[in-house]
Amino acid sequence: MASTLMPATSPSLQLHSKGKTKLGSCDSNAFLRGQNKNASLKLQPVSRVRMVAAVNVSRFEGISVAPPDPILGVSEAYKADTNEKKLNLGVGAYRTEELQPYVLNVVKKAENLMLERGENKEYLPIEGLAAFNKVTAELLFGADNPILKEQRVATVQSLSGTGSLRLAAALIERYFPGARVLISSPTWGNHKNIFNDARVPWSEYRYYDPKTVGLDFEGMIADIKAAPEGSFILLHGCAHNPTGIDPTPQQWEKIADVIQEKNHIPFFDVAYQGFASGSLDEDASSVRLFAARGMELLVAQSYSKNLGLYAERIGAINVVCLTADAAARVKSQLKRLARPMYSNPPVHGARIVANVVGSPDLFNEWKEEMEMMAGRIKTVRQKLYDSLTSKGNSGKDWSFILKQIGMFSYTGLNKAQSENMTNKWHVYMTKDGRISLAGLSSAKCEYLADAIIDSYYNVS
Ligand code: PGU
Protein backbone atom coordinates (compact mmCIF):
# COMPACT_ATOMS: atom_id res chain seq x y z
CA MET A 1 0.00 0.00 0.00
CA ALA A 2 1.39 3.36 -0.98
CA SER A 3 0.69 5.06 2.35
CA THR A 4 3.02 2.70 4.22
CA LEU A 5 5.88 4.29 2.35
CA MET A 6 5.06 7.76 3.66
CA PRO A 7 6.73 9.49 6.62
CA ALA A 8 4.28 9.42 9.56
CA THR A 9 4.81 13.04 10.56
CA SER A 10 4.53 14.46 7.11
CA PRO A 11 1.89 17.22 6.98
CA SER A 12 1.19 16.22 3.40
CA LEU A 13 0.53 12.65 4.41
CA GLN A 14 -1.94 13.67 7.10
CA LEU A 15 -3.77 15.92 4.71
CA HIS A 16 -4.03 13.41 1.87
CA SER A 17 -4.66 10.24 3.77
CA LYS A 18 -7.83 11.83 5.13
CA GLY A 19 -9.07 14.06 2.37
CA LYS A 20 -10.09 13.48 -1.24
CA THR A 21 -7.27 15.50 -2.69
CA LYS A 22 -6.65 14.96 -6.40
CA LEU A 23 -3.39 13.92 -7.87
CA GLY A 24 -0.87 16.75 -8.00
CA SER A 25 -2.79 19.19 -5.84
CA CYS A 26 -0.79 18.64 -2.66
CA ASP A 27 2.23 20.53 -1.40
CA SER A 28 4.92 18.47 -2.95
CA ASN A 29 7.24 21.45 -2.95
CA ALA A 30 7.95 20.93 0.70
CA PHE A 31 9.46 17.61 -0.20
CA LEU A 32 11.24 19.02 -3.21
CA ARG A 33 12.79 21.73 -1.12
CA GLY A 34 13.96 19.11 1.32
CA GLN A 35 12.11 20.76 4.20
CA ASN A 36 10.66 17.58 5.60
CA LYS A 37 13.26 16.16 7.93
CA ASN A 38 11.58 12.76 8.18
CA ALA A 39 11.57 12.12 4.47
CA SER A 40 14.03 9.44 3.56
CA LEU A 41 16.65 10.87 1.25
CA LYS A 42 16.60 7.70 -0.80
CA LEU A 43 13.00 8.18 -1.81
CA GLN A 44 11.95 10.54 -4.53
CA PRO A 45 9.80 13.09 -2.69
CA VAL A 46 7.59 13.96 -5.65
CA SER A 47 6.67 10.40 -6.44
CA ARG A 48 5.95 9.77 -2.75
CA VAL A 49 3.37 12.55 -2.78
CA ARG A 50 1.79 11.05 -5.85
CA MET A 51 1.63 7.68 -4.15
CA VAL A 52 -0.35 9.23 -1.32
CA ALA A 53 -2.78 10.75 -3.76
CA ALA A 54 -3.29 7.28 -5.25
CA VAL A 55 -4.81 6.07 -2.01
CA ASN A 56 -7.84 8.22 -2.67
CA VAL A 57 -7.94 8.72 -6.42
CA SER A 58 -7.44 5.95 -8.93
CA ARG A 59 -4.42 6.25 -11.17
CA PHE A 60 -6.72 4.93 -13.87
CA GLU A 61 -9.21 7.78 -13.51
CA GLY A 62 -8.32 9.12 -16.95
CA ILE A 63 -9.10 5.83 -18.69
CA SER A 64 -12.54 5.70 -20.25
CA VAL A 65 -14.56 2.59 -21.05
CA ALA A 66 -13.57 1.05 -24.38
CA PRO A 67 -16.34 0.32 -26.87
CA PRO A 68 -17.32 -3.36 -27.22
CA ASP A 69 -15.48 -5.22 -29.96
CA PRO A 70 -17.58 -5.15 -33.16
CA ILE A 71 -17.26 -8.94 -33.59
CA LEU A 72 -16.41 -10.57 -30.26
CA GLY A 73 -18.68 -8.09 -28.45
CA VAL A 74 -21.61 -9.58 -30.39
CA SER A 75 -21.07 -12.93 -28.63
CA GLU A 76 -21.15 -11.19 -25.25
CA ALA A 77 -24.45 -9.50 -26.10
CA TYR A 78 -25.83 -12.83 -27.38
CA LYS A 79 -24.99 -14.58 -24.11
CA ALA A 80 -26.84 -11.90 -22.14
CA ASP A 81 -30.06 -12.35 -24.21
CA THR A 82 -32.55 -14.73 -22.57
CA ASN A 83 -34.91 -15.05 -25.57
CA GLU A 84 -35.11 -18.66 -26.73
CA LYS A 85 -35.24 -17.72 -30.41
CA LYS A 86 -31.86 -16.03 -30.28
CA LEU A 87 -29.30 -16.86 -32.94
CA ASN A 88 -25.60 -16.01 -32.89
CA LEU A 89 -24.45 -15.21 -36.42
CA GLY A 90 -21.78 -12.77 -35.27
CA VAL A 91 -18.50 -14.58 -34.81
CA GLY A 92 -17.18 -16.83 -37.56
CA ALA A 93 -17.21 -20.07 -35.61
CA TYR A 94 -18.53 -23.37 -36.93
CA ARG A 95 -21.54 -24.90 -35.18
CA THR A 96 -23.26 -28.23 -35.69
CA GLU A 97 -26.81 -28.52 -37.04
CA GLU A 98 -27.82 -28.43 -33.34
CA LEU A 99 -25.96 -25.12 -33.09
CA GLN A 100 -23.34 -26.56 -30.77
CA PRO A 101 -19.58 -25.91 -30.98
CA TYR A 102 -17.77 -28.70 -32.81
CA VAL A 103 -14.52 -30.42 -31.87
CA LEU A 104 -13.23 -32.31 -34.90
CA ASN A 105 -12.76 -36.07 -34.53
CA VAL A 106 -9.23 -35.79 -35.86
CA VAL A 107 -8.45 -33.27 -33.13
CA LYS A 108 -9.71 -35.68 -30.47
CA LYS A 109 -7.61 -38.47 -32.00
CA ALA A 110 -4.52 -36.27 -32.09
CA GLU A 111 -5.07 -35.28 -28.46
CA ASN A 112 -5.40 -38.93 -27.44
CA LEU A 113 -2.11 -39.66 -29.17
CA MET A 114 -0.51 -36.81 -27.27
CA LEU A 115 -1.79 -38.16 -23.95
CA GLU A 116 -0.55 -41.65 -24.76
CA ARG A 117 2.87 -40.29 -25.55
CA GLY A 118 2.90 -38.37 -22.26
CA GLU A 119 4.32 -35.28 -23.90
CA ASN A 120 5.80 -32.62 -21.63
CA LYS A 121 4.94 -28.94 -21.30
CA GLU A 122 8.38 -27.39 -21.56
CA TYR A 123 8.85 -24.13 -23.43
CA LEU A 124 8.94 -24.28 -27.18
CA PRO A 125 11.72 -22.48 -29.03
CA ILE A 126 10.79 -18.90 -29.92
CA GLU A 127 9.98 -19.93 -33.50
CA GLY A 128 7.65 -22.69 -32.29
CA LEU A 129 7.42 -26.44 -32.80
CA ALA A 130 9.66 -27.57 -35.66
CA ALA A 131 7.23 -30.33 -36.74
CA PHE A 132 4.41 -27.78 -36.88
CA ASN A 133 6.42 -25.24 -38.85
CA LYS A 134 7.33 -27.90 -41.39
CA VAL A 135 3.80 -29.16 -42.02
CA THR A 136 2.16 -25.75 -41.93
CA ALA A 137 4.40 -24.43 -44.71
CA GLU A 138 3.81 -27.63 -46.70
CA LEU A 139 0.06 -27.35 -46.29
CA LEU A 140 0.15 -23.79 -47.51
CA PHE A 141 2.59 -23.94 -50.40
CA GLY A 142 2.31 -27.64 -51.30
CA ALA A 143 4.85 -30.17 -50.04
CA ASP A 144 6.69 -30.24 -53.38
CA ASN A 145 6.99 -26.52 -53.76
CA PRO A 146 10.63 -25.71 -54.65
CA ILE A 147 10.61 -22.68 -52.36
CA LEU A 148 10.55 -25.11 -49.42
CA LYS A 149 13.41 -27.25 -50.70
CA GLU A 150 15.37 -24.08 -51.41
CA GLN A 151 14.71 -23.00 -47.81
CA ARG A 152 13.42 -19.66 -48.96
CA VAL A 153 10.55 -19.52 -46.47
CA ALA A 154 10.90 -18.18 -42.94
CA THR A 155 8.11 -19.85 -40.97
CA VAL A 156 7.44 -18.90 -37.37
CA GLN A 157 4.61 -20.38 -35.30
CA SER A 158 2.61 -17.60 -33.74
CA LEU A 159 -0.62 -16.86 -31.89
CA SER A 160 -3.08 -17.89 -34.55
CA GLY A 161 -3.93 -15.62 -37.48
CA THR A 162 -4.14 -12.45 -35.40
CA GLY A 163 -0.79 -12.95 -33.66
CA SER A 164 0.87 -13.86 -36.96
CA LEU A 165 -0.46 -10.71 -38.61
CA ARG A 166 0.69 -8.68 -35.61
CA LEU A 167 4.18 -10.14 -35.76
CA ALA A 168 4.42 -9.37 -39.46
CA ALA A 169 3.17 -5.85 -38.76
CA ALA A 170 5.97 -5.44 -36.22
CA LEU A 171 8.47 -6.61 -38.86
CA ILE A 172 7.12 -4.06 -41.33
CA GLU A 173 7.23 -1.30 -38.75
CA ARG A 174 10.84 -2.07 -37.87
CA TYR A 175 12.35 -2.79 -41.27
CA PHE A 176 10.16 -0.85 -43.69
CA PRO A 177 9.64 2.43 -41.90
CA GLY A 178 6.96 4.53 -43.53
CA ALA A 179 5.82 1.71 -45.84
CA ARG A 180 2.08 1.54 -46.21
CA VAL A 181 -0.21 -1.45 -46.03
CA LEU A 182 -3.16 -1.46 -48.40
CA ILE A 183 -6.26 -3.09 -46.99
CA SER A 184 -9.41 -4.08 -48.87
CA SER A 185 -12.56 -2.04 -48.31
CA PRO A 186 -14.27 -3.60 -46.45
CA THR A 187 -12.15 -6.05 -44.53
CA TRP A 188 -12.07 -8.09 -41.32
CA GLY A 189 -12.59 -5.57 -38.53
CA ASN A 190 -9.36 -6.32 -36.70
CA HIS A 191 -6.96 -5.61 -39.58
CA LYS A 192 -7.00 -1.88 -38.99
CA ASN A 193 -6.50 -2.31 -35.22
CA ILE A 194 -3.51 -4.56 -35.84
CA PHE A 195 -1.73 -2.06 -38.08
CA ASN A 196 -2.73 0.89 -35.93
CA ASP A 197 -1.30 -0.71 -32.82
CA ALA A 198 1.88 -1.66 -34.68
CA ARG A 199 2.10 1.96 -35.94
CA VAL A 200 2.08 0.88 -39.56
CA PRO A 201 0.30 3.33 -41.87
CA TRP A 202 -2.49 1.84 -43.94
CA SER A 203 -5.00 2.90 -46.54
CA GLU A 204 -7.78 1.11 -48.37
CA TYR A 205 -8.22 -0.24 -51.87
CA ARG A 206 -11.64 -0.65 -53.40
CA TYR A 207 -12.95 -4.18 -53.24
CA TYR A 208 -16.70 -4.48 -52.86
CA ASP A 209 -19.13 -2.93 -55.31
CA PRO A 210 -22.59 -2.60 -53.74
CA LYS A 211 -24.15 -2.03 -57.18
CA THR A 212 -23.13 -5.40 -58.53
CA VAL A 213 -22.86 -7.00 -55.07
CA GLY A 214 -19.56 -8.26 -56.46
CA LEU A 215 -15.90 -7.40 -56.77
CA ASP A 216 -14.93 -3.90 -57.86
CA PHE A 217 -12.03 -5.30 -59.83
CA GLU A 218 -11.25 -2.14 -61.81
CA GLY A 219 -11.24 -0.09 -58.62
CA MET A 220 -9.03 -2.61 -56.87
CA ILE A 221 -6.47 -2.64 -59.66
CA ALA A 222 -6.47 1.15 -59.97
CA ASP A 223 -5.89 1.61 -56.23
CA ILE A 224 -3.09 -0.96 -56.09
CA LYS A 225 -1.48 0.77 -59.09
CA ALA A 226 -1.79 4.17 -57.45
CA ALA A 227 -0.16 3.10 -54.17
CA PRO A 228 3.44 4.20 -53.53
CA GLU A 229 5.97 1.65 -54.85
CA GLY A 230 6.92 -0.99 -52.35
CA SER A 231 3.63 -0.96 -50.45
CA PHE A 232 2.37 -4.10 -48.75
CA ILE A 233 -0.88 -5.31 -50.30
CA LEU A 234 -3.00 -7.24 -47.83
CA LEU A 235 -4.99 -9.93 -49.64
CA HIS A 236 -7.43 -12.49 -48.28
CA GLY A 237 -6.13 -15.81 -49.61
CA CYS A 238 -9.64 -17.20 -49.94
CA ALA A 239 -13.16 -16.68 -48.60
CA HIS A 240 -12.82 -12.91 -48.25
CA ASN A 241 -14.11 -11.67 -44.90
CA PRO A 242 -16.71 -10.15 -44.75
CA THR A 243 -17.89 -10.18 -48.38
CA GLY A 244 -17.41 -13.84 -49.34
CA ILE A 245 -16.31 -12.60 -52.77
CA ASP A 246 -12.97 -13.81 -54.15
CA PRO A 247 -11.17 -12.85 -57.36
CA THR A 248 -11.27 -15.44 -60.16
CA PRO A 249 -7.99 -17.20 -61.12
CA GLN A 250 -7.64 -14.78 -64.07
CA GLN A 251 -8.17 -11.82 -61.77
CA TRP A 252 -5.55 -13.15 -59.35
CA GLU A 253 -3.07 -13.26 -62.26
CA LYS A 254 -3.82 -9.64 -63.08
CA ILE A 255 -3.49 -8.62 -59.41
CA ALA A 256 -0.10 -10.37 -59.32
CA ASP A 257 0.94 -8.51 -62.52
CA VAL A 258 0.17 -5.12 -61.00
CA ILE A 259 1.82 -5.96 -57.70
CA GLN A 260 4.97 -7.04 -59.55
CA GLU A 261 4.96 -3.97 -61.78
CA LYS A 262 4.78 -1.69 -58.78
CA ASN A 263 7.32 -3.60 -56.71
CA HIS A 264 4.73 -4.07 -54.01
CA ILE A 265 4.92 -6.91 -51.51
CA PRO A 266 1.87 -9.20 -51.29
CA PHE A 267 0.78 -9.99 -47.77
CA PHE A 268 -1.76 -12.79 -47.58
CA ASP A 269 -4.10 -13.47 -44.72
CA VAL A 270 -5.14 -17.12 -44.94
CA ALA A 271 -7.70 -17.78 -42.22
CA TYR A 272 -10.03 -20.10 -44.14
CA GLN A 273 -7.92 -22.62 -46.05
CA GLY A 274 -10.33 -25.46 -46.85
CA PHE A 275 -13.42 -23.51 -45.91
CA ALA A 276 -14.01 -21.72 -49.20
CA SER A 277 -14.13 -24.65 -51.59
CA GLY A 278 -13.81 -27.55 -49.17
CA SER A 279 -10.38 -28.27 -50.74
CA LEU A 280 -7.16 -27.29 -48.97
CA ASP A 281 -5.21 -27.16 -52.22
CA GLU A 282 -7.73 -25.13 -54.16
CA ASP A 283 -8.00 -22.58 -51.34
CA ALA A 284 -4.22 -22.13 -51.35
CA SER A 285 -4.05 -21.56 -55.10
CA SER A 286 -3.89 -17.75 -54.86
CA VAL A 287 -0.85 -17.89 -52.57
CA ARG A 288 0.80 -20.58 -54.70
CA LEU A 289 0.25 -18.55 -57.86
CA PHE A 290 2.21 -15.63 -56.38
CA ALA A 291 4.94 -17.90 -55.00
CA ALA A 292 5.31 -19.62 -58.40
CA ARG A 293 6.16 -16.26 -59.94
CA GLY A 294 9.22 -16.09 -57.73
CA MET A 295 7.80 -13.18 -55.75
CA GLU A 296 8.63 -12.39 -52.14
CA LEU A 297 5.51 -12.48 -49.99
CA LEU A 298 4.14 -12.75 -46.49
CA VAL A 299 1.44 -15.18 -45.46
CA ALA A 300 -0.33 -15.30 -42.09
CA GLN A 301 -2.05 -18.63 -41.40
CA SER A 302 -4.71 -19.63 -38.90
CA TYR A 303 -6.05 -23.01 -37.75
CA SER A 304 -8.96 -21.49 -35.84
CA LYS A 305 -11.56 -22.37 -38.45
CA ASN A 306 -10.31 -25.26 -40.55
CA LEU A 307 -9.27 -27.38 -37.56
CA GLY A 308 -11.67 -25.70 -35.13
CA LEU A 309 -8.76 -24.75 -32.85
CA TYR A 310 -10.07 -21.26 -32.09
CA ALA A 311 -8.96 -21.01 -28.47
CA GLU A 312 -5.69 -22.87 -28.95
CA ARG A 313 -4.28 -19.83 -30.76
CA ILE A 314 -2.37 -21.70 -33.40
CA GLY A 315 -1.13 -20.27 -36.67
CA ALA A 316 2.04 -19.10 -38.37
CA ILE A 317 3.68 -16.30 -40.26
CA ASN A 318 5.53 -17.31 -43.42
CA VAL A 319 7.86 -14.95 -45.23
CA VAL A 320 8.90 -16.11 -48.69
CA CYS A 321 12.26 -14.59 -49.62
CA LEU A 322 14.40 -14.59 -52.75
CA THR A 323 17.22 -16.49 -51.05
CA ALA A 324 17.68 -18.95 -48.19
CA ASP A 325 20.07 -16.48 -46.63
CA ALA A 326 17.44 -13.72 -46.56
CA ALA A 327 14.90 -16.17 -45.11
CA ALA A 328 17.28 -17.10 -42.29
CA ARG A 329 17.84 -13.45 -41.47
CA VAL A 330 14.12 -12.65 -41.55
CA LYS A 331 13.40 -15.62 -39.30
CA SER A 332 15.99 -14.48 -36.78
CA GLN A 333 14.35 -11.04 -36.66
CA LEU A 334 10.84 -12.47 -36.33
CA LYS A 335 12.10 -14.39 -33.30
CA ARG A 336 13.65 -11.25 -31.92
CA LEU A 337 10.32 -9.43 -32.28
CA ALA A 338 8.33 -12.30 -30.74
CA ARG A 339 10.57 -12.72 -27.69
CA PRO A 340 9.62 -9.51 -25.84
CA MET A 341 5.98 -9.71 -27.06
CA TYR A 342 5.03 -13.20 -25.86
CA SER A 343 8.36 -15.05 -25.59
CA ASN A 344 7.32 -18.29 -27.28
CA PRO A 345 4.07 -19.78 -28.56
CA PRO A 346 1.78 -22.40 -26.94
CA VAL A 347 2.50 -26.05 -27.67
CA HIS A 348 -0.87 -27.81 -27.52
CA GLY A 349 -2.39 -26.64 -30.80
CA ALA A 350 0.96 -26.96 -32.56
CA ARG A 351 1.14 -30.65 -31.64
CA ILE A 352 -2.44 -31.20 -32.80
CA VAL A 353 -1.68 -29.68 -36.21
CA ALA A 354 1.62 -31.53 -36.50
CA ASN A 355 -0.14 -34.83 -35.74
CA VAL A 356 -3.09 -34.27 -38.07
CA VAL A 357 -1.28 -32.80 -41.04
CA GLY A 358 1.75 -35.01 -40.55
CA SER A 359 -0.11 -38.34 -40.48
CA PRO A 360 -1.59 -39.55 -43.80
CA ASP A 361 -4.55 -41.24 -42.05
CA LEU A 362 -5.53 -38.30 -39.90
CA PHE A 363 -4.90 -35.92 -42.76
CA ASN A 364 -7.36 -37.76 -45.00
CA GLU A 365 -9.91 -37.90 -42.21
CA TRP A 366 -9.47 -34.17 -41.67
CA LYS A 367 -10.16 -33.48 -45.33
CA GLU A 368 -13.41 -35.42 -45.05
CA GLU A 369 -14.45 -33.51 -41.94
CA MET A 370 -13.63 -30.23 -43.58
CA GLU A 371 -15.70 -31.12 -46.62
CA MET A 372 -18.51 -32.00 -44.23
CA MET A 373 -18.26 -28.59 -42.50
CA ALA A 374 -17.97 -26.66 -45.76
CA GLY A 375 -20.85 -28.75 -47.13
CA ARG A 376 -23.13 -27.94 -44.19
CA ILE A 377 -22.51 -24.25 -44.75
CA LYS A 378 -23.33 -24.63 -48.45
CA THR A 379 -26.57 -26.40 -47.54
CA VAL A 380 -27.77 -23.62 -45.24
CA ARG A 381 -26.66 -21.05 -47.82
CA GLN A 382 -28.94 -22.70 -50.36
CA LYS A 383 -31.81 -23.05 -47.85
CA LEU A 384 -31.56 -19.41 -46.85
CA TYR A 385 -31.62 -18.37 -50.49
CA ASP A 386 -34.66 -20.59 -51.15
CA SER A 387 -36.54 -19.18 -48.16
CA LEU A 388 -35.75 -15.58 -49.07
CA THR A 389 -36.77 -16.12 -52.68
CA SER A 390 -40.07 -17.76 -51.77
CA LYS A 391 -40.94 -15.18 -49.09
CA GLY A 392 -39.80 -11.98 -50.76
CA ASN A 393 -42.49 -10.71 -53.10
CA SER A 394 -40.74 -7.76 -54.71
CA GLY A 395 -38.68 -9.90 -57.03
CA LYS A 396 -35.44 -8.95 -55.31
CA ASP A 397 -32.56 -11.03 -56.55
CA TRP A 398 -31.02 -12.84 -53.59
CA SER A 399 -28.66 -14.92 -55.73
CA PHE A 400 -25.63 -13.04 -54.39
CA ILE A 401 -25.99 -15.27 -51.32
CA LEU A 402 -25.24 -18.30 -53.45
CA LYS A 403 -22.31 -16.64 -55.19
CA GLN A 404 -20.56 -15.74 -51.94
CA ILE A 405 -18.27 -18.36 -50.44
CA GLY A 406 -16.84 -19.30 -47.07
CA MET A 407 -18.38 -18.90 -43.66
CA PHE A 408 -20.13 -15.60 -44.21
CA SER A 409 -22.83 -13.91 -46.17
CA TYR A 410 -22.61 -10.19 -46.69
CA THR A 411 -26.30 -9.41 -46.76
CA GLY A 412 -26.23 -5.75 -47.74
CA LEU A 413 -28.30 -4.88 -44.65
CA ASN A 414 -27.29 -1.47 -43.33
CA LYS A 415 -26.59 -0.57 -39.70
CA ALA A 416 -30.21 0.23 -38.80
CA GLN A 417 -31.45 -2.93 -40.51
CA SER A 418 -28.79 -5.02 -38.77
CA GLU A 419 -29.84 -3.49 -35.45
CA ASN A 420 -33.45 -4.44 -36.20
CA MET A 421 -32.28 -8.01 -36.77
CA THR A 422 -30.86 -8.04 -33.25
CA ASN A 423 -33.33 -5.87 -31.35
CA LYS A 424 -36.50 -7.29 -32.83
CA TRP A 425 -35.53 -10.77 -33.99
CA HIS A 426 -32.70 -11.65 -31.57
CA VAL A 427 -30.44 -12.42 -34.49
CA TYR A 428 -26.95 -11.38 -33.43
CA MET A 429 -24.68 -10.23 -36.26
CA THR A 430 -22.10 -7.55 -36.99
CA LYS A 431 -23.39 -4.09 -37.84
CA ASP A 432 -21.86 -4.20 -41.32
CA GLY A 433 -24.58 -6.63 -42.41
CA ARG A 434 -22.39 -9.74 -42.22
CA ILE A 435 -23.92 -13.01 -41.01
CA SER A 436 -21.96 -16.13 -40.18
CA LEU A 437 -23.66 -19.03 -41.91
CA ALA A 438 -21.48 -21.34 -39.86
CA GLY A 439 -23.74 -20.44 -36.92
CA LEU A 440 -26.96 -21.20 -38.80
CA SER A 441 -28.90 -24.49 -38.88
CA SER A 442 -31.30 -25.68 -41.58
CA ALA A 443 -34.09 -25.51 -39.02
CA LYS A 444 -33.48 -21.79 -38.47
CA CYS A 445 -33.32 -20.73 -42.13
CA GLU A 446 -37.00 -19.81 -42.37
CA TYR A 447 -36.81 -17.73 -39.20
CA LEU A 448 -33.70 -15.95 -40.45
CA ALA A 449 -35.34 -15.26 -43.80
CA ASP A 450 -38.34 -13.69 -42.01
CA ALA A 451 -35.98 -11.49 -40.01
CA ILE A 452 -34.03 -10.41 -43.09
CA ILE A 453 -37.17 -9.64 -45.09
CA ASP A 454 -38.67 -7.62 -42.26
CA SER A 455 -35.44 -5.68 -41.76
CA TYR A 456 -34.85 -5.16 -45.48
CA TYR A 457 -38.36 -3.94 -46.37
CA ASN A 458 -39.52 -2.25 -43.16
CA VAL A 459 -36.38 -0.49 -41.92
CA SER A 460 -34.62 2.07 -44.05
N1 PGU B 1 -8.05 -13.05 -40.57
C1 PGU B 1 -9.33 -13.09 -40.94
C2 PGU B 1 -9.68 -12.66 -42.31
C3 PGU B 1 -10.31 -13.51 -40.04
O1 PGU B 1 -11.57 -13.55 -40.43
C4 PGU B 1 -9.93 -13.91 -38.74
C5 PGU B 1 -10.94 -14.33 -37.73
C6 PGU B 1 -8.56 -13.87 -38.42
C7 PGU B 1 -7.66 -13.43 -39.36
C8 PGU B 1 -8.02 -14.25 -37.10
O2 PGU B 1 -8.43 -15.38 -36.51
P1 PGU B 1 -7.55 -16.10 -35.42
O3 PGU B 1 -8.50 -16.79 -34.54
O4 PGU B 1 -6.72 -15.09 -34.73
O5 PGU B 1 -6.70 -17.06 -36.18
N2 PGU B 1 -12.17 -13.73 -37.81
C9 PGU B 1 -13.35 -14.28 -37.18
C10 PGU B 1 -13.17 -14.60 -35.71
C11 PGU B 1 -13.48 -13.57 -34.70
C12 PGU B 1 -12.46 -12.47 -34.66
O6 PGU B 1 -12.83 -11.39 -35.13
O7 PGU B 1 -11.34 -12.69 -34.19
C13 PGU B 1 -14.54 -13.40 -37.53
O8 PGU B 1 -15.63 -13.68 -37.04
O9 PGU B 1 -14.39 -12.49 -38.34
UniProtKB/TrEMBL annotation:
Catalysed reaction equations from the record: L-aspartate + 2-oxoglutarate = oxaloacetate + L-glutamate
Record-annotated Aminotransferase class I/classII large domain positions: 85-452
EC number of this enzyme: 2.6.1.1
InterPro entries to which the protein is assigned, alphabetical: Aminotransferase_I/II_large, Asp_trans, NHTrfase_class1_PyrdxlP-BS, PyrdxlP-dep_Trfase, PyrdxlP-dep_Trfase_major, PyrdxlP-dep_Trfase_small
Chain intervals with Polar residues compositional bias: 1-15
Comment field (misc): In eukaryotes there are cytoplasmic, mitochondrial and chloroplastic isozymes.
Disordered: annotated span: 1-21
Organism of provenance: Carnegiea gigantea
Any Gene Ontology biological process: amino acid metabolic process
Listed cofactors: pyridoxal 5'-phosphate
Quaternary organization: Homodimer.
UniProt similarity note: Belongs to the class-I pyridoxal-phosphate-dependent aminotransferase family.
Keywords noted in UniProt: Aminotransferase, Pyridoxal phosphate, Transferase
NCBIfam families, A to Z: PRK09257.1 (NF006719)
Protein name as it appears in the record: Aspartate aminotransferase
GO molecular function, one term: pyridoxal phosphate binding
